[in-house]
Amino acid sequence: MALNLGPAPVLDPFDSFAVQQWMLSLQQAMSTTTFDEAAQDAIGLMIDSTLVYVDATPLLTRAALSGDITAPQASNVTTLATVNANIGSSGTSTAVGTFTVNGKGLITAASNTNIVYDSVNFTGTNWTDLTDGGTTILHTHLSGIASSITLVDAAADTTTWVVLGTSQTGNVNPATDAGLTYDASTNTLTTTTFSGALLGNATTATTATNLPGGTAGAIPYQSDAGATTLLAATATARQMLQSGASAAPTWSTTTWPATTTTGGLLVSTGTNIVGEVSAGATTTILVGGGAATVPVWTTATGSGAPVRATSPTLVTPFLGTPTSGTLTNCTGTASGLTAGTVTTNANLTGPITSAGNATTVADAELAAIAGLTSAANKIIRFTGSGAAEVLDFIDWTTPTFAAGDFTASGSMTWTVAAGDVGTYAYTILNKTMTVSFNINTSTVGGTPSTDLMIAIPATKTATKGMRNPVQLLDNGTRTTGVAYVDASGTVIVIQRTDAANFTAATDNTYILGQITFQIN
Length: 520
Description:
Blueprint: H1 16-32, E1 51-54, E2 59-62, E3 69-70, E4 79-80, E5 95-101, E6 107-114, E7 129-131, E8 137-140, E9 160-161, E10 181-183, E11 188-190, E12 219-224, E13 227-231, E14 239-244, E15 247-255, E16 265-270, E17 273-277, E18 285-287, E19 296-298, E20 352-355, E21 358-361, H2 364-370, E22 378-384, E23 387-397, E24 406-408, E25 412-415, E26 421-429, E27 432-446, E28 452-455, E29 466-474, E30 477-485, E31 491-496, E32 505-518
Antiparallel strand pairs: 1-2, 3-4, 5-6, 7-8, 9-10, 10-11, 12-13, 14-15, 16-17, 18-19, 20-21, 22-23, 23-26, 24-28, 25-27, 26-27, 27-32, 28-31, 29-30, 29-32, 30-31
């Protein structure tokens, strides 16, 4: 049953008695009346603003929650407001999570910060395990290899220990061994045993104390690459070691003398026995004693024996240069002997005559030649009966190429390369020079003119003028020309027969000819 209090009274808030009377009547009504609604509808007075009356239900419900915690009207399901966009876990093996908390205790921001180790304090044994300051290990450092370490010069330390590892690679704990030390002040590495091959020079090595496995008298040898073997001592004294080529050496079965004397000769005196033949006298020669006989010293000489006696028979001997000898009974031709003084008069007749050992050239022409002085590049010319002279003669000679030996008149240029010269040679006979030339594929340039010029070789000068025809190919046109020298001239001038200018052309001017003239 609904509680109906009627229209809301109009109360004077300063009339305390009226207010008390209204409140008393309200309490009486509520104590005597059962009601389903705890508030008036929209036109009535609300009991609490956090309550919502739903007339259609009709129910009085809680209003919706808002703020940091929200909930729909009349629902007990609450929702926390999102205050941090970084949703998920924080912290990794190399970073720690960092957070921002507001005044209500809410985390409003989250991120990761990389762990940076203190390079000053986090060293030494602390690098292995990260603890809480006590015995609890927070992190064991097992991964990663240090890329570098800081070394300190130990020059003043007399004893340092070499750092060792139990594995060639990977993460291992460093170790030392008291049996391996290093004295930095003397650069001395000390240990008790070495294994494996030692390379280099041992400048201060002392005597080796022992080779394992050897016996008295054994000799070590290289039996293979990196392997040394001991050859056992021989039971027989005075035996020699003989090579086995690439195999192991062995003891020879031959015995040798324990001592020798000065001048003695070692010979085989028996099977596998070497003995000594004593020194012989200066008048003796060592000869074989025959089969199974020791050689002996002898003074015998003659046929079939050493030459020590008179009248031996020698077959094709080489005598060297004898200091003396008489060849009265020698026969045959002595082609290599030099004639000495002729002791028997055998006078010569003819162009050369002799009286005893004195000779005379009777022929006038021979006498004229005999009176000349010979020299290189000279020939003989008879100037009359019984008269002769020496003339200069130079066989055909090619001068060393020089581009400056080929010039032109006026402003015309004549370019001749070494490959353009087929022939440029000369010969000299006394005062006559002949020059032969064959110039191919030469180049004429500049302002065309009439003269091409070749230097007279051997720095000679013409003493008389001379002319001779030549063949020309002027810019591909075959024609004739003339080569001439002037008295006192130093060049051979080449002109066209028609005295026209040469044509400027590249690699298309040819000259072929020869001229003979008198020189100084």
